Amino acid sequence: MIVFEGVGKRFGGRSVIDGLDLRIEDGEFFVLVGPSGSGKSTLLRMVNRLVTPDSGRILVDGDDVASVDVEQLRRGIGYAIQSVGLFPHRTVGENIATVPRLLGWSKRDIDARVDELLALLRLDDPGIADRYPRTLSGGQQQRVGVARALAARPRIVLMDEPFGALDPLTRESLQSALRTIQRDTATTILFVTHDMDEAFGLGDRVGLMLDGHLVQVGTPLELIRQPADERVREFVGGSRARLRELAIRPVRERMRNEIASGGAAVDIDASLQDALGAMLAQGRDRLRVEEKGRVVGSIALADLVERRG
Known about the structure:
There is one protein chain. The protein has helices at residues 40-47, 70-75, 92-96, 98-102, 107-120, 138-150, 168-185, 196-202, 220-225, 230-235, 245-248, 272-282, and strands at 2-11, 14-24, 29-33, 55-60, 63-64, 77-81, 156-160, 188-193, 205-210, 213-218, 265-267, 286-291, 294-300. It is of the alpha/beta class. The longest helix has 18 residues, at 168-185. It is globular. The model has no long low-confidence stretch (mean pLDDT 89).
């Protein structure tokens, strides 16, 4: 659990964060979203003491981070950033193994964990563990950075715009892999982004930061349907915000029990946006819905429209 109590920070006489309170629960995927300069990255970096607050305190599992040995604190918290920061003279495997080695893991356990993460993050090129970062694509380097952050099975992982420089397809693939890993391991993740679609696609809850203040915290659906003020309404898309619901609502919510015959299919856990895309690509107004390869129902174009009640 991460708790911020009255946290404030100033740089050069300018207030960057002002009296902020926030509680992030164990196993939660919490996303801080906001424009550049809103204070979200500064807030994240206070958790592992890369930045020191001027007022208030931050608790991790009940302990004030200011009272914990900084090396001990950081070894227990995974950290991934946009620029990756891989060690250029260490192989992929050695980079991933950095924290487990510091913690005294055995070679067998380290090798097993490296292999596990390479598979989870689809780093499956032959011999990739023995390659150096300079030989990898940008997307592969970012995957290694995520693997390194997860290597020691930390209960908390901090991620600061980790996918911001990637192309859309690579970014979407990494987001999906990260969400799956987080759900499977119940890791607490504090994730910073300026992209509202990314925030809504990943976060259990989302905190919108503007000018050093958390102006609203809630589920993606709460921010869309119950914006705290006009600033929130505009940031989440204004009059187009309801279209974002298609991206965060699963097909299973609108599925019919009727079995459609033939044609394209969509997975039950896919988004309504995915279903719409498949309908447009196939020129159809109805799709079969599958769960683990078995047809369980159907979804029609009309089902994508808002239904009240």
